Amino acid sequence: MDSTLYLDLGSPFVYLAIERLDRFEFGEVLSRPVSLGALFKYTGRSSWGMGPRREVGMAEVQARARAYGLPAIRWPQGWPSNYLHANRMALVAEEQERLEPFVRAALRMAFVDGVDLGGEDACSEVARSVGMDAAGAHARAGDPEIKQRLRDYTEQARAAGVWGVPTLRIGERLFWGDDQLEIAAAARP
Fold first, then answer.
1. Per-residue pLDDT tens for 133-187?
2. Over the range 158-180, which residues count as b (16 or more CB within 10 Å of their CB) and which as e?
């Protein structure tokens, strides 16, 4: 059964899901970068990280990381920032069959090392760490084809019923949130 994990590199809950995904027997899971900001526009929502729930949400992420046995969360300065370029770089990594290691390295850099992925230097470091040519990847990330692919992936996710990340799709069922991995695993046929 095909499975897809919809993600945005700016989400600490995506970090929590990615780090735990291998603990479950989902088989092959396709990572699918989307623009969470665009999903917010579609749904009329906004990031909890920019509102009155910020401190509560950050504490929840930190508590879950501890409960899951993951390293302590280090928040990037100014989080959340603009992750559009980072998500486009992920699509370049996808073209080069480096998506999975790129996503893991980027999320660890953001939420374990506390580095803002909104800057090109951070994306360059991630690209180099997974064997990509950083300069070439940045150039490709600015290509209209890559920009359109991110829009297309986001629209496809929205059409499938995704309204937040991480969302794991198994067959036609959607499981939203890192805390739904256990439920998703139990629901697998």
1. 999 999 999 999 999 999 999 999 999 999 999 999 999 999 999 999 999 999 8
2. beeebbbbbbbbbeeebbbbbbb
User: What is the 3-class SS of the chain, one letter each residue?
Assistant: CCEEEEECCCCHHHHHHHHHHHHCCCCCEEEEECCHHHHHHHHCCCCHHHCCCHHHHHHHHHHHHHHCCCCCCCCCCCCCCCCHHHHHHHHHHHHCCCHHHHHHHHHHHHHCCCCCCCCHHHHHHHHHHCCCCHHHHHHHHCCHHHHHHHHHHHHHHHHCCCCCCCEEEECCEEEECHHHHHHHHHHCC
Q: What are phi and psi of 157, to 5 degrees?
A: -65, -45
pTM of the model: 0.95
Give the Cα separation of 106 and 121 in Å (integer): 12
Distance (Å, whole) CA 22 – CA 189: 18
Q: How far apart are CA 156 and CA 143, in angstroms?
A: 20
